[in-house]
Amino acid sequence: MKYYISYQYPQHHFIHITLYLRDINKDITYLQLPSWRPGRYELGNFAKNIQRFNIQDMQGGMVPHKKVSKDRWEVVTKGIGELQVKYTYYGNQMDAGGTYLDEEQLYINFINCMLYAEGRLNQPCEVHLQLPHDYRIACSLKQVAQHTLEASDYYELVDSPMIASNRLQQHSYLAGDTIFHLWAMGDSGSLNWPLTQEAFRRFSEVQIKTMQGFPAPEYHFLFQFLPYKAYHGVEHGASTVVTLGPSNELHLPDLYKNLLGISSHELYHVWNIIRIRPAEMMPYDFTKENYFTTGFVAEGVTTYYGDLFLARGGVFDLDEYLVELNRSLQRHVSNGGRFNHSLIDSGFDLWLDGYSPGIPNRKVSIYVKGSLVALLLDLQLRKLTNNERSLDNVMQLLMQEFALKQKGYTYEDYKKIVERVAGQPMDEYFRLYVEGLEPLENHLPELLEWVGLSLRQQPARSSTQRLYGFKVGEKEGNVISIQDVAPGSPAEKHLSRGDELVAINGRRIQLNNLEELLAGQDKVVISFFRNHTLRTVELAAGESSYKTELKILPLPNPSPEQLQSRQAWLWQ
User: Fold this and answer.
1) Going by DSSP bridges, is the β-strand pair 125-129/2-6 parallel, antiparallel, or unpaired?
2) Which domains does the chain have, with CATH numbers?
3) Cα Rg of the chain, angstroms
4) Which of 141, 268, 356, 429 could form a disulfide with 160 if both were Cys (CB 3.0 to 4.6 A apart)?
5) Do 295 and 321 meet the contact criterion of CB atoms below 8 Å apart?
6) Could you give the 3-state DSSP secondary structure of residue 328?
7) Chain segment 129-142, per-residue pLDDT in tens
8) Are 18 and 84 in contact (CB under 8 A)?
9) CB–CB of 565/571 below 8 Å?
10) What is the rounded CA–CA span in Å between residue 502 and residue 363?
11) How far apart are CA 191 and CA 251, in angstroms?
12) pTM of the model
């Protein structure tokens, strides 16, 4: 399959695409645009961005065709050996999984916009790009000529995003025997590149060491540094795209750590999900949902390792690592869905509502809870085997016995490998924490103690959460609204998620005066808008805390044995 890409007025974001098909020998040919993209387990509806769709033979004659689903076309090709499929794609989605065109760049995730002919997924693909002469291309695909890319098959094509621009910056580093390229689009002037390259080299080296080799000849980080707030990454076979902003704050600690964290996370995906892949996705079926139950492995284990490798590589010290760990822990315990939906069920339901807030207290995050369940497993395996074996061995075995043999693994396969590494049955772990609703804090303290850490539980510092059981946040327009209501709390009887708070005891509410308004009060009168109607209720403070904060802290006087176990876990 050959694709030709051009554009006329980049400020309008329309990309002109022509697909040439030859050697057609069927009476009916089906054309398909992917319904979703790997890394985002929800339907993408990319076909909504297609305009001016038509199909011609090589002499320019119109070929009969009709649309048979939202993203599938039936083409009458009896007696026709060659086709040209012409369409325009609207590229105005600037995130790590989107496609975007403007006066400064052409950025394409090919999975968004490249049609394929049914039965030809395994055939070579060529992409010919009509670009300004001085444009460079950042992409993991082979460049066989100027502005011409080649893929071994359609799967490789759509797993290889590209950025073309004359404003690309390029840096590189060597980790193991692999060259890693850092491509930057946008303003990265505030970033200390030598320091960044060294940090990337460190976490890359430790990932390669842990996984016993790198599975690609080279690797490309494609960064879109944006002038506004952004945080998104998508993994690929030999590359990743990361969108991050605001770019003028890249030198500040919080955003810089986000850059390191998301990059380490996406790099580990080169093993976990790209190659260590669930059986339900071998191969990917781009026409419909690919339901699977091991999202907690694909995303949870990756999230856990993303930060852990920053510690192992010496990029994070203990305190910095615990900040990230505690952030995940607090996000999880603040989610009432942990009492209603298991980790495995929430993973299966990714295709339903996995990337939206959903109804209150319905589900857990396979990223957040998945990472904490991975922490539990790693520490448990280390404790059972006195640090002889760990989650590292589980992932190594999945790589050796499944990925390298191009086999997908099932939930049962994962359980069996975990039990092999543990040297004993692990039914309780899976029953309680993957399939069940057991609070993680019931088991976490004893495992943390083994590595010289403790779990401190305390009432929420916020009075709204501690005394009344509701959490607030600020929406656009400086509107203070309720984000969550704790079951069994005083707030549950009267307030709802989405209520817009106006006043407490007749005084106007702002985020910075909430604690002042609630101080020393046993009862409060709250005024709020619901469905554009002003309401007023009286709430009495509860007798117990309705929201809890958990925090992992170092023990003040850890034993030599605890320090040795911590060393084996974090720094090896």
Assistant:
1) parallel
2) 2-165 (2.60.40.3650), 271-452 (1.10.390.10), 463-546 (2.30.42.10)
3) 26
4) 141
5) no
6) helix
7) 999 999 999 999 99
8) yes
9) no
10) 30
11) 5
12) 0.94
